[in-house]
């Protein structure tokens, strides 16, 4: 089905022309900064060289009486720093909040082309994206912004998951989506207070064999269905899917497992909420060196990407060539940005 004729037309006279495809960027982690905390904001200059995206958070986790300080703090950190090819994103308040209009009216003219992405919380359907799309076009035209500010939706309500495909298709500004496990759990009535990861109560039991006790039990992944829905919707419309927060900072192993599940299922990155999670995301969302080496063998053995060959006893064909290309393209992006990986991959 073709997009409507005006899908790529600016929504306001003077607004920048929408993109027809996403810029190629390495976004292994979206690092959350609470901009109202001066001590953390002061770390932004060093964070810029450590992470792929710096995000100023204005929504949940910012106390109601600090919303203005967070907005002003974000504008200051955006104006005071040169982000180079590190992304500068902001999570604005919800569209039904008393703060969101001031967020948009203050940030767009203050940061103009420096702002890459606006993360929109609690997206329920395409209508939320349409609203932000139109307001951004008007603010961009008024402020003389020359490149379109992109939108990243958080998938964190039951209705949002029901509408995930229409959200992905709602605007040329759509850059991607993140799974928001805390609000989604509350919205669905899930019985967990954890922020991401597994739950010991969500498991399946092996059949009872004789009277051998205890019966083997296998913990299952609470987020598998939602991540798969999000990845399918994002990939269909050329967006990037992300895993969101992992709240237990004291359990880096479980954080890595959750990130790796998301990576293997097609996610491009995850959120880092604390410095201790940056390297976990870097390790997980940069392709494994052996996978890259094997993928390069496949591409070398099938230069035009067609046919069938055997490599190390495994059949390779057009489909595995495409899988190999995903891995090698990502490795090239990471190597271009992260010289450690350039040496590891030999790229
Ligand atoms: C939790 C907090 C208060 C613990 O902050 P702390 O200072 O108490 O922690 P710490 O371990 O004592 O900090 C150690 C050092 O790291 C620094 N530090 C600490 N955090 C950061 C950071 N993010 N970036 C850079 N530096 C940081 C901190 O300043 C300190 O520096 P120092 O050694 O010089 O004293 C702090 O880490 C924080 O605010 N993190 C962000 C939390 C956040 O944004 N939560 C919302 C996203 S999740 C969500 O919204 C859900 C979702 C999607 O909506 C849904 O599922 O529904
Ligand atoms: Mg939330």
Commentary on this structure:
By secondary structure, this protein is α/β, with parallel strands linked by helices. It folds into 2 domains: 4-285, Phosphoenolpyruvate-binding domains (TIM Barrel, Alpha-Beta Barrel); 291-345. It is 42% helix and 15% strand. It is built from 14 helices and 12 strands. It has helices spanning 38-41, 44-50, 67-80, 100-111, 126-143, 158-162, 164-168, 181-188, 224-236, 252-264, 278-285, 289-301, 318-337, 339-345; strands at residues 29-33, 53-57, 87-91, 117-120, 150-155, 174-179, 203-205, 217-219, 240-243, 270-272, 308-311, 314-317. The protein has an 8-stranded parallel sheet. A two-stranded antiparallel sheet has the order 7-8. It has a two-stranded antiparallel sheet with strand order 11-12. Helix 12 packs across helix 13 (318-337). The longest helix is centred in the C-terminal third of the chain and has 20 residues, at 318-337. The chain starts with 28 loop residues before the first strand and ends with a helix. The model has no long low-confidence stretch (mean pLDDT 96). The structure holds Citramalyl-CoA and magnesium ion (MG). Magnesium ion is lined by residues 60, 121, 156, 180, 182-183. Substrate binds at residues 91, 156. Belongs to the HpcH/HpaI aldolase family. It comes from Roseibium limicola.
